[in-house]
Design goal:
heterotrimer, A alpha/beta (259), B mainly alpha (294), C mainly alpha (343), A: 10 helices, C: 343 residues, ABC transporter involved in vitamin B12 uptake, BtuC
Chain lengths: 259, 294, 343
């Protein structure tokens, strides 16, 4: 019961000039959970993600990943520790093929040295062949195999989102951060996405934390939900608790609103 | 002390010229994020225009100067229209390579035109030379006074236009956000063309003033002059108009002092300062840092 | 698996085919060398053409190095001539100042020459690190200016060293290099760079070019790869510089100005940045074609400028159009399953 949480955030805060974008944010996520952070536009959700992946250094507070404080580490180390993410505005390697995108994400699993690479020793060839198989199988699991040799930017929007998800999974993360995965999707696609996210959690045994505007998605799949506004935590709890929380309703709809 | 003042005068004299030329780099960069490699060659075109116009009887310093500003300005607008505008939505590198191509073209075409040719030519003396004693043995001459005065007038005029006129406001708007400016009804193409026009006019003026000081001109004069002015622009913070003035002055003064110290050092000194500034303040002395949005 | 006689034969046949495929570029190069040598001996080719060819190959090497920095890793360096200068001067210093090359017995000469190339590579690599490391604090256009500045500073420093001739130039360098030497190093450069680019290291460099933030979130230390690209690109240029020094026999700081650097840029982008083929085709074409157009004298540079502009307007991916010659893309080891099927 009292296992170390995979993610523990303490008093996290960041200032940009005069703006306190995130203030005294506390958060705990247990291994295997599916957490959601919601809040109106500009509430500081993406900023929290950016701190969780090392992109913005926080002004105050600590981030414990599997019990280790990782604040101050360079971005790539966050990934090495096991945190992967997708971006709100899809940041694939646009000019490269889907396969190449995944291959790059498998970079950390490459075990040959620079000199082996320069001389293209047999070990390099062997590893490269294995790598290709690993990547193809991952693409296959996410039903992307047919797009393996397509340029990422030429793929349909929904496929690009899925590819970005596959790319994040390729880093073998323990914690997967999804930044507005449903952005720009129609209701059927969102429905499909809900299933995919749950499937990914079970199939890849990852803990997932997502940011979303789409209330339905969050309410349906998240184990617990955290609501932020103006960089501050305003509510926390199970979906059914959040649904009736007065502070949340006010933040979203103003006073007197109703879901 | 006298020596110091004398060097300072030389430095400022050179610095204002760099500032004039740097202005074109900074304005073009500010508006379309392009390092206009061909800008230096407009300096040369200005100098050669002056060289020929000065032969017309009755044309003194001022008409020569006006001609030397208009010709490169028109050429610059034509270049923008033909070579840069079609590439505006392509990767910035394509435009940069195009600019290099334009620059190679501009340096070599005049060499092949018989009346210009590859040789050095003596620049006419447009200003009667006189020296005034300033302090001890430090002197200032009419050419230096002309250089500094003309540069100050032109720079003030430019800053006035950018700050206080409607056109200037449009320029600032376009450099801030092209799409939004277009939505506000600003003719972006016209503003960009105008920026090229103004920048090249100042470069032409810089070419004339430089040639007054070092009265031998050739078709490659713009290459080094352009490079140094460009360094000045970056030093001050490219995109910033006061930065170009500051960078130009600094570059001129440093170069003169370093050359006085060791003649081989003069050239490298500006670059050393540039690198130090960029490493510790990458946006330049007066530039604004850019924040990457994720 | 089947163990039948024909199966084994087919296996050997396939292996031979693979080996032949692997070696075909080398064989091609050897044939090329023999053909050129024969044509020269038979006086079909003037020494001048071979000279141009050698310059072309050296330019190819420098451009391939620049391609790694600019085309593959997406940095913007315009100081490549500075690295060539470091390599040229340091190797010339070894053969001219450290050893008296022409007084050496002829058996030792190749060794000393190779040593000078090694020194050139290391010296250029060190400069690549010194320039690459701090430069990465700045991005894009600013990086370009810093590399330009560093290139010019290298030139200014050379002018200050009287031992290598300072502003007068460095003369008396043994003219030891011939086409064979250049072809060997040209082939090695292609081989190493190909291996690098088509490995995880090269992919990491490509990811820096495509989106360095996304690359970081893939666990890639982008700084490491950018610096690595700078170093390898500089070493390549340095080795090419060493060859150049011993081809020309004379060096002058002004040969390595930033104008020379823009030449390499032009070769790269005209040929097609990002691929080895592009670098080679661009450098070769733009070295040879202007020489062939010598009868146009000064006009050829006018045309050169014009062609560059037209290229960018109408063929933005360069002559090679972003495609790699297939023999430059290493193949993966054949899968075991396939061998079973064949056997």
């Amino acid at each position: 019961m009292t296992a170390t949480p995979i993610l523990e955030i303490h008093n996290l805060g960041v200032r940009f000039g005069g703006l306190q974008a995130v203030d005294a944010f506390h958060y705990v996520l247990q291994e295997g959970d599916l957490g959601g952070i919601i809040g109106p536009n500009g509430a500081g959700k993406t900023t929290i993600f950016n701190m969780l992946t090392g992109i913005y250094p926080p002004t105050t507070g600590e981030i414990f990943f599997r019990g280790k404080n990782i604040v101050g580490a360079p971005i790539h180390d966050f990934t090495r520790y096991g945190i992967a993410r997708t971006f709100q505005n899809i940041r694939l390697f646009k000019e490269l093929s889907a396969l190449e995108n995944i291959r790059i994400a498998r970079h950390m699993s490459v075990n040959y040295g620079l000199f082996s690479a320069l001389f293209r020793r047999p070990s390099v060839q062997r590893r490269e062949s294995e790598l290709e198989e690993e990547c193809m199988s991952l693409l296959d699991r996410l039903s992307l195999a047919q797009y393996a040799h397509h340029k990422a930017s030429s793929l349909p929007y929904g496929v690009q989102r899925r590819l970005e998800l596959a790319r994040a999974l390729a880093t073998s993360p323990g914690l997967l951060l999804l930044d507005e995965p449903a952005a720009g999707m129609n209701p059927q696609e969102v429905d499909q996405l809900s299933k995919t996210i749950l499937w990914i959690r079970d199939e890849f045994r990852v803990t997932i934390l997502l940011i979303e505007h789409h209330m339905q998605l969050v309410m349906n799949i998240c184990d617990h939900i955290t609501v932020v506004n103006f960089g501050k935590l305003i509510a926390e709890g199970k979906p059914e608790e959040i649904r009736v929380n007065a502070a949340v309703i006010e933040a979203y709809l103003g006073k007197g609103g109703k879901f | 002390m006298e020596h110091f003042i004398q060097l300072l005068i030389f430095g400022v004299q050179l610095g204002v010229i760099y500032a004039l030329i740097a202005m074109g780099y900074t304005m073009v960069y500010g508006i379309i994020r392009l390092i206009n490699f061909a800008h230096g060659d407009l300096v040369m075109i200005g100098a050669f225009t002056a060289y020929f116009v000065a032969r017309i009887p009755g044309f003194g310093f001022i008409p020569v100067m006006v001609a030397a500003m208009i010709v490169p300005a028109v050429i610059s607008v034509v270049i923008e229209r033909l070579a840069y505008r079609p590439l505006r939505n392509r990767p910035r590198l394509s435009v940069l390579i195009t600019a290099i191509g334009v620059s190679i073209f501009l340096e070599n075409l005049p060499r092949m035109i018989p009346v210009i040719g590859p040789n050095y030519r003596p620049f006419p003396q447009l200003i009667a030379f006189r020296e005034f004693r300033l302090y001890g043995s430090a002197v200032v001459n009419t050419i230096q006074i002309t250089n500094i005065a003309a540069s100050l007038i032109l720079l003030t005029l430019l800053i006035g236009i950018v700050r206080f006129t409607k056109t200037g406001r449009a320029m600032r708007a376009v450099s801030f956000n092209k799409e939004a400016a277009a939505l506000m009804g600003i003719d972006v193409n016209r503003v960009i063309a105008l920026t090229f026009f103004v920048g090249a006019a100042l470069a032409g003026a810089g070419g004339v003033l430089y040639s007054l000081t070092y009265p031998m001109i050739d078709v490659l004069m713009g290459v080094w002059l352009g490079t140094k002015a460009f360094v000045a622009a970056v030093l001050g913070g490219i995109g910033s108009i006061p930065g170009a003035v500051l960078g130009g002055l600094l570059m001129g003064i440093v170069e003169v002092f370093a050359t006085a110290f060791n003649s081989e050092l003069g050239y490298g000194a500006g670059f050393i300062i540039l690198i130090l500034v960029l490493l510790f303040r990458p946006e330049g002395l007066m530039g604004r840092p850019t924040i990457e949005k994720v | 698996m089947s163990g039948s006689g024909t199966g084994v034969n087919i296996d050997i046949f396939h292996k031979l085919k693979r080996e032949a495929r692997r070696c075909s570029p080398l064989i091609g190069l050897a044939v090329f060398y023999l053909a050129v040598t024969y044509l020269r001996e038979a006086r079909y080719l003037k020494a001048y053409y071979i000279q141009v060819l050698m310059f072309g190959l050296i330019n190819c090497m420098v451009t391939m190095g620049l391609n790694l920095i600019n085309g593959v890793t997406g940095q913007f360096s315009i100081g490549q001539a500075g690295f060539v200068a470091v390599g040229a001067y340091s190797s010339a210093a070894v053969t001219t100042l450290l050893f008296r090359f022409n007084a050496l017995p002829s058996i030792v000469r190749p060794l000393v020459f190779l040593l000078s190339i090694l020194v050139a590579g290391i010296a250029a690599g060190v400069f690549g690190y010194l320039i690459g490391r701090p430069s990465l604090r700045v991005k894009g256009d600013y990086l370009a200016i810093v590399t330009l500045g560093f290139g010019e500073i290298i030139r200014a420093i050379i002018r200050l060293i009287p031992q290598v001739g300072g502003p007068r130039g460095f003369s008396g360098i043994p003219r030891y290099v011939n086409l064979a030497w250049i072809l060997i190093f040209f082939a090695l450069t292609i081989w190493f760079l190909r291996n690098y680019i088509y490995s995880a290291y090269g992919r990491a460099c490509i990811s820096c070019r495509e989106d360095d933030l996304a690359a970081e979130t893939m666990g890639i230390n982008t700084t490491t790869y950018k610096v690595q690209a700078f170093i390898i690109g500089a070493v390549t240029a340095g080795v090419a510089g060493a060859l150049l020094a011993h081809l020309l026999g004379y060096l002058h700081p002004d040969q390595f100005s930033y104008i020379r650097s823009t030449d390499f840029l032009v070769y790269l982008y005209a040929g097609g940045a990002g691929t080895i083929s592009g670098a080679v085709v661009g450098a070769m074409a733009l070295t040879i074609v202007p020489e062939m157009l010598r009868f146009l004298s000064g006009w050829r540079l006018v045309i050169y400028g014009l062609v560059l502009v037209l290229m960018m307007l109408y063929r933005p991916h360069g002559i090679s159009n972003g495609k790699e010659f297939s023999f430059l893309v290493p193949r993966l080891a054949p899968k075991k399953t396939e061998e079973v099927q064949e056997g």
